[in-house]
Fold this protein.
Amino acid sequence: MTDSDTTDRSGAGGQLVLERTFDAPIQLVWAMWTEPRHFRAWYGPAGATIPVASMDVRVGGSRLVGMEMQTPDGPMRMWFAGEYVAVEAPHRLVYTESMADEQGNALTPDQAGMPADQPVGTTVTVELTEVDDGTRLVLTHVGVPSDSPGATGWNMALDELTRHLAEADRN
């Protein structure tokens, strides 16, 4: 990775925008977002594991991600479900995301144990561009403010993505 930037272009519910440049070819970065075996290896905040990543990467296809982590209160399991809205390989990926149960049914903030002002659903846009020193990523997560735990989690995940790309590039 050569640089990073986090900005909040707030609208209703906030809008997190992260920008990174990875020292890796665009096809490899795309695979990290679209192939479950790669996605499981880097996604989530530090200490999280992803035992489930079901991804039907096509417009209208569904996604279900199960995340496990240890918290001060004990183990926690979270589920995220959504649908792919745009798939333009290897440059643009857009999907919806909601807290969910393990069958992929969206939960209200109350059902998920979150504050009532949290949005039920959010939208993630991943834009990839080839640049001289690798691949430029612009990640936009509408509904997640830049000062939220979600923003912290995304930054940790992208740090792990950097490490995973370096390992994958060596193999």
User: Anything to note?
Assistant: The chain has a mean pLDDT of 90.
